[in-house]
Amino acid sequence: MSAGVVALAINTSGEDAVQDTFANALTAFKQEDGSYMIGATFRCFLAEA
Question: How far is CA 9 from CA 20, 33, 35, in A?
Answer without folding.
Answer: 12, 30, 26
